[in-house]
Amino acid sequence: MSKCISLVTLALLLSACSAGNPSVSPGSDTGTTTMDTETTVSEIPETTPVRRVENCFITAQDQLPSNWPDDIPFYSGSTVTEVKCSPNDSDNFSVRSTSPDNPEQIFTFFSEEVERETWRISSAADAGPYETYNYYKTISADKTGRQLLLDIRRPVGSNLVEIIYRERVF
Asked: Which keywords describe this protein according to UniProt (predicted)?
């Protein structure tokens, strides 16, 4: 009877090992087992952006500022309409652009691309409509020492969507 229990126990252990539950540690000859676990990381990514120059300066109102980082996605279907360096005590720069594209398409683009650039989205919210905007959504994303704020909005009576980019550096 004890041989039957031992064989059944051995069969169960082998079955569990081949299913990927407990496994023998690679390179281990001691027979110790470890459990496979999934880890979810919700930490703010630590990356250093690549910038042409460190300080913001404006070459033209229809061009991105000199310190635009490589990890902020720019919507290619838009035209830059305004650039400000340090528009307030918090923001490193503010860039406004417009696009004739569907606002939900633009919002979806940023929802995907911001995460692809390893930003952690802390909020994505529907902030409208208001009397002056028939579409208004925002995205806030973080990296260590930085925050990206995006406003995507379409003014009432306009065919153009405004995209406002702001970067905060702490």
From this structure: Signal
